[in-house]
Amino acid sequence: MALHPVLHAVTQRIIDRSRERRAAYLDHLQAAAQQGKVERAQLSCTNQAHAFAAMPDNIKIHLKEAHRPNLAIVSAYNDMLSAHQPLEAYPAWIKEEALKAGATAQFAGGVPAMCDGVTQGQPGMELSLFSRDVIAMSTAVALSHQMFDASLYLGVCDKIVPGLMIGALTFGHLPAVFVPAGPMTTGIANDDKAKVRQLFAEGKVGRDQLLESECQSYHGPGTCTFYGTANSNQMMMEIMGLHLPGTAFVNPGTPLREALTRAAARQAAHIAAQGENFTPVGRMIDENPSSTPLSACWPPAVPPTTPCTWWPLPAPPASTSTGTILTNCRPSSRC
């Protein structure tokens, strides 16, 4: 199966333009990597004691061991935004599964998350793009303690995911698994919502009726019910192999959503330096998967409000790069 010539040309330009900087970055990763040793082995006993002083005794026992990976949890949780509210339960699931997989997990830090759907037309919107840099810095601060051997990044949306990604690549010697919340279930039809907005603009219904209509559209946990930047970011991360396959568009509050989150913890332990398939995110994300989202296809027959994720055949595991998009693609079973 031939690679599309335009995609090949773009990829080659990325390789040529970034060759020197990429080589310097990989040298940095090599210097930072401690393959076969836990990150905390670099710390003094005093440093380590500070890092797990508050952990339960059964976890302290494992953290004292020099062979057991410790997973970082970096989360964009808050309970105001529907896209991030489901993340509240994730750390407990991840910690449980990490223990089952022979690892431990600690909540390394939180990052802010804002939503343009709330701030549009308001002064707060001016902080939207700036928040990405704050998120990247917050991620780096969370990982700066040298206690972690792989990381799970909990978040969605168009500032949060790029910010988490910048932070993750700054610590690119660590494996990374991104964990989304999934989309909220379908609300009222777009035509019905548009009709109420039109009636309000004409002065035929009041603000109470307009608010009720909007609340029936944006009505529960999860990302917005249209193919906007939140859902496209989830699709992009799956295409790049940073999500578990098939995880982007599973609704919150379902058994499958919990199962996928738990599986993400097991995968993070599996790809840690002490695991079976060490996969530093800085080596995994190269010119191939970073150009792949540019070619993510959208079938014209699928309505814009129906999320659809695409991947090369076969669906890639999260532990390896997805490579480049080939000409033979298929939609997921949720199309």
Describe the structure.
By secondary structure, the chain is of the alpha/beta class. The chain has 2 domains: 285 residues, no CATH class; 34 residues, no CATH class. Helix content is 43%, strand content 8%. A 4-stranded parallel sheet has the order 2-1-3-4. Helix 4 crosses helix 11 and helix 8 packs antiparallel against helix 9. The C terminus is likely disordered.
Brief summary:
The protein is of the alpha/beta class.
What is the N-to-C succession of helices and strands? HHHEHEHHEHEHHHHHHEE
Helix content: 40-55%
Q: Largest sheet, if any? A: 4 strands, parallel
Contiguous runs where pLDDT drops below 50 for at least 5 residues: 297-335
Strand content: 5-15%
N-C termini distance: 24 Å
Please supply descriptive tags for the structure shown above:
6 strands, 335 residues, disordered C terminus, alpha/beta, two-stranded antiparallel sheet, globular
Strand and helix layout:
Blueprint: H1 5-32, H2 45-51, H3 57-63, E1 70-75, H4 90-100, E2 104-110, H5 116-119, H6 128-143, E3 150-154, H7 160-170, E4 176-179, H8 190-201, H9 207-217, H10 229-239, H11 255-271, H12 281-284, H13 287-291, E5 310-312, E6 329-331
Parallel strand pairs: 1-2, 1-3, 3-4
Antiparallel strand pairs: 5-6
Helix pairs in contact: 4-11, 6-7, 8-9
